[in-house]
Amino acid sequence: MESEQTAQGGNVPLERRVMPPLTDEIEWILGRPCFAVAGIARRLHELKLYDVARKAESEQAAALHWMLNLYFTHGLAWRDEAEKVLRHNANSSAKPAD
To answer: Rounded CA gap, 80 and 53, in Å?
Structure first.
């Protein structure tokens, strides 16, 4: 089986590198401007799910990556899963990470 080396040094089989069709959900996710997902990125950082730098492009990349992964894992239920994760311990007195 033919594969390609990734930036992290792993190999990805070529048949797994095919982009899925541009569905309405994928278009919605990829169409989020940086200012619309900054809060999501900060929450992902607080939950220690992503190490997000405080710059717009890093916040946008982390949030879009996370949402796409949820969509690919949960299909149309991805938004419900996202809400569960983002609301996790939302009422705790934990200090947000910098």
So the answer is: 26
